[in-house]
Every structure is written in structure tokens, then in C-alpha cells.
Design brief:
356 residues
């Protein structure tokens, strides 16, 4: 059988993710509901704060359609100098308190939910989300801590590099490109690479029962040992990015001057958010499929190497080149054509070869 092309294997992994997302609609709905609930709780004080600032000015409709810097400056002044002592509005105090608790809680939820999703999408979706959270949640939190710190350091490093470039060239164009284009784009790319490594660390915790420390280093090495992981990640990253920015574009493009238009816009945006949660499930599904392909491709070689080392240590003989599965040192599959192919043949079969 001819070896499958890289494009065919890549399509297989993406198709596996799409299939598991279709198989697990409840999982996508769970992720959407949790994210939506937290967003709603945070948005309520923000809504009342804007209502306080705008009052009966009539600027609300204009702000819904476009960005107006002078109006936003007035809103800032009203909300952050709301009382006689120059303090902030009570809605801002509530919002700050909510964010103080919501941000770490959402970080904790993301860490737990990631291993829950990985557990739910592996083995053709036969396992459960909550069992994965309970079994692997502790290690997922330990793994997320260093990645959180590394992400902060990486963003700070990008900012420092852009500042250095702007201060060295010292032109208005250099400053503009460094901070308006270079810093956000480079930060996104760096964080995406770190997120890819983090993903495969999570998968290692669940699929291989690895400790957090081992999963951390295996995750770092994954895109270097198997560059195909970059292609799988990039496709889902692009899909997720489109669904992330599309609701904002719809808010700008679609007119919501009537209640019907406003309701239609909200419903459409929420449907896109549900779809984005489905992309998260499919994303992990494709990465798990790729991880398992790499695992099945590599582990027989690892097992053969460990067996050879053990025999040599016990006997003192060099057994390289000898087939340990056959007493005579020959390949039983080659000696008997009626027997199924050996491990190497199985590893090279369709569906089990990772992208080079």
C-alpha cells in the first residue's frame, strides 16, 4: 500500500477532531455555558456603569455603532470620579471585585476543563469529562502554573524587544510598527506556540499518566520532535481566531436600531460562541489523535530498545539486529507469509503515521 501523503494524514487528524466534536455536542455546550455565565456576571456591573455614565445623553446608540474617543473619555471621567471625594463609581468597585475573583477562578476552570476534555475525546469518546477532571485535575493545575509564568515572561520579553527596536531606530514609523503591529502579532505567535506545548503536556498527563514535571518537558519537545503538531494546531487556531473576531465584526456590520435587529444580532453572536466551544472540543480531538499516532509510531521502537538493553545487561551479549520475538533470530512474519505483518509494518499502515 502506498504511503499516505502529508496532506492526507493532516486531513485525517482534522477529520478526527470534527468527528469527536459532532459526537460530543453536550461537551461544547458545557464549555459555552460556563464561559457565558462568567461573562454575564462580569458584564452586568459594566452595563450599569455605562448606563450611569451615559444617562439620557443619547450617546448610547452612537457608541453601539462606532468608537468615539471623546465620549469614552467623558465616560472614564464620570465613572472614576463619581463621588465627591473623587472615588470611582460603585459599579466599578463591584466590577473590580468580581474580576479579582473571576480571573483566577476562570484560570482554574480552564486548567481543569482541559484535562476533562482530553479525557472525554480520547478512545473514541468512550470516557467522561468529569472523571478526567477528578483524576487529572491536580496535575493539570501543577502543569498550568509554570506555563502561566512563562507566558507572562514571554509577553514581557516581546515588549522589551519591541521597545529596544523602537529606541534604537528612533523614528515615528519604527515606533508605530513596533508597538501597533509587531508587539501584538509577535505576542500572539509566541503565546500560541506556548499553548501548543501546554496542550501536549495536558494530553501526556491524561493519555500516558505522566507526572506534571515530565509532561512539562515532553510538551516543550513535542513541536521540535514532531513538526506536524504545528500544522494541526495552526488549522484549529485559525478557525478559533475567525470565530473569536467574527462576533465583533457582526456588531459593526449589522444594524441593530430595532429590538428585532438587536435580538437577531445577539442570537447570532451566541451561536458563534457555541460553535467556538465546539472548535475547542475538535481542537483537542485532533491533537489527541495526532498524539496517539505519534505514540503508536514511537513506542514499539522504545520497547524494542528497552528490551535489547535489558538482555545485554543480563547476558553481556550484543543482541542488536536480533529479533527478540523469534527464538531463531529471524522475522516470523517474513518466514511465514500467512502471519500478519510485524510491528514495523503495522506502524507504517494508514492512520498510524504522524506528519513528518
Amino acid at each position: 500500500m502506498a504511503e499516505r501523503s502529508t496532506q492526507q494524514r493532516l486531513r485525517d487528524f482534522i477529520a478526527a477532531g470534527i468527528a469527536i466534536a459532532k459526537q460530543k455536542p453536550g461537551l461544547a455546550l458545557l464549555l459555552y455555558l460556563v464561559n457565558g455565565l462568567v461573562s454575564l456576571v462580569v458584564a452586568m456591573p459594566a452595563f450599569f456603569a455605562l448606563q450611569r455614565a451615559l444617562g439620557d445623553s443619547g450617546w448610547g446608540k452612537d457608541l453601539a455603532g462606532s468608537f468615539n474617543l471623546p465620549v469614552w473619555t467623558d465616560i472614564w471621567n464620570v465613572l472614576f470620579q463619581a463621588d465627591a471625594d473623587g472615588g470611582v463609581a460603585p459599579e466599578i468597585k463591584i466590577l473590580t471585585t468580581l474580576l479579582f475573583f473571576a480571573i483566577p477562578l476562570m484560570w482554574l476552570w480552564k486548567a481543569l476543563a482541559s484535562v476533562g476534555v482530553v479525557n472525554a475525546v480520547r478512545d473514541n469518546g468512550m470516557r467522561g469529562f468529569w472523571s478526567g477532571v477528578g483524576r487529572y485535575g491536580g496535575r493539570a493545575i501543577l502543569l498550568a502554573l509554570p506555563w502561566f509564568l512563562i507566558s507572562l515572561i514571554a509577553v514581557a520579553g516581546v515588549g522589551f524587544a519591541m521597545s529596544l527596536i523602537a529606541s534604537t531606530i528612533r523614528t515615528e514609523k519604527a515606533v508605530y510598527w513596533s508597538f501597533t503591529i509587531g508587539m501584538p502579532v509577535l505576542s500572539i505567535l509566541v503565546l500560541a506556540l506556548l499553548d501548543l506545548m501546554h496542550d501536549y503536556g495536558r494530553i501526556g498527563i491524561v493519555a500516558r499518566e505522566e507526572k506534571a514535571s515530565k509532561a512539562f518537558f515532553n510538551g516543550i519537545s513535542m513541536p521540535f520532535r514532531n513538526p506536524g503538531a504545528l500544522a494541526v494546531y495552526a488549522i484549529w487556531f485559525f478557525a478559533g481566531l475567525v470565530l473569536l473576531v467574527l462576533p465583533g465584526f457582526l456588531d459593526t456590520w449589522m444594524t441593530s436600531g430595532t429590538w428585532i435587529g438587536l435580538i437577531a444580532l445577539i442570537v447570532l453572536q451566541q451561536l458563534l460562541m457555541v460553535l467556538r466551544s465546539g472548535v475547542t472540543v475538535g481542537w483537542f480531538g485532533s491533537e489527541v489523535a495526532y498524539f496517539e499516532a505519534v505514540r503508536f509510531h514511537d513506542e514499539p521502537l522504545i520497547a524494542e530498545g528497552e528490551l535489547q538493553s535489558g538482555v545485554e545487561a543480563r547476558t553481556g551479549f550484543d543482541v542488536s539486529g536480533v529479533d527478540a520475538s523469534s527464538p531463531t533470530g529471524s522475522d516470523p512474519a517474513a518466514d511465514n507469509p500467512k502471519q500478519p505483518g510485524n510491528v514495523a509494518d503495522w506502524r507504517s499502515g494508514p492512520g498510524h503515521e504522524p506528519i513528518a
